[in-house]
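#lab-general

N.A. 3:47 PM
ok so I finally got the sequence cleaned up, no stray characters, all 305 residues accounted for. can someone with queue access submit it? mine expired

B.Y. 3:52 PM
send it over

N.A. 3:53 PM
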Amino acid sequence: MFALNGKRDLSAEGSGAAAPAGVLPRPLRRAVRVLGAVCAGRIPLPAHTGKMALAAFYSAITVYGVAIGGHTQAVVQGVSSTAGFGIEDIKVSGNEQTSEIDILQLLGLDGATSLVGLDIDAARAKLVALPWVESAEVRKIYPKTVEVSLRERKAFGIWQHGTDLSLIEKNGSVIAPLRDNKFASMPLFVGRDAEVAAAGVEEQFAKWPAIATRVKAFVRVAGRRWDLHLDNGVVIKLPEADVDSALAILSRLDAEQQVLSRDIAAIDLRLSDRTTIQLTPEAQVRREAAVVDRAKMLKKLGPSI
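B.Y. 4:20 PM
back already:
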């Protein structure tokens, strides 16, 4: 009867029963009424609302496309550069072996790069990957300056392994292949494990600078000892242990007999109780001839002696 007479069933509504099919939930009813009033013209809209809504719609699409396409960084670079944050001044310090051109190209600083969009951590990681760079610091100085400070590795010598030549640090770490003659005056270490053993050479020869300055190459033998190749071609064979005593003997022989200036091929100091000197082939021929001449002379003078 209530339904036929158009009266509401208050008991059903108050009890929280579900609304009849086709009836909107209460939270949406007000929004629908407002939308209907706008469409009917009963609620006036501000001027240019449609244009603003259209612009907002296209802006949202553009932002979404940039994000999906991975162009966010490029857009930030362009906008901030146009706004006056383009990098115009790069200050580099600590680079003795690393060229500024390499640094600029590596970081992509081409004059249109934005200071806002520059990734400091990524820039530092790229710089540290350079052969000579041990550590790097990159700083932004607004509005238009980047400071790059490098600490470079120090070359200690040249390591020859096979036919390849590489610059090494004192701890044996390889810096880079040798490309020019700039480091030709550095000591040369030859052979397997020579780059690792090179660290001890400076300490071993600290007391014998006169010998060290004449060494052209330190040749590692069987990973245990050194052969010294001097600037005049003489080879000094050092022992595996007690190198200091062997160098003391060599220094004394040179001071007393100038052995390093004579026509000899090698001096063998590997045995502590004897020193063996090897003559060059030419000196050996001359010595043999001298011995023969001496024998003939003695034979001729035999009875009178």
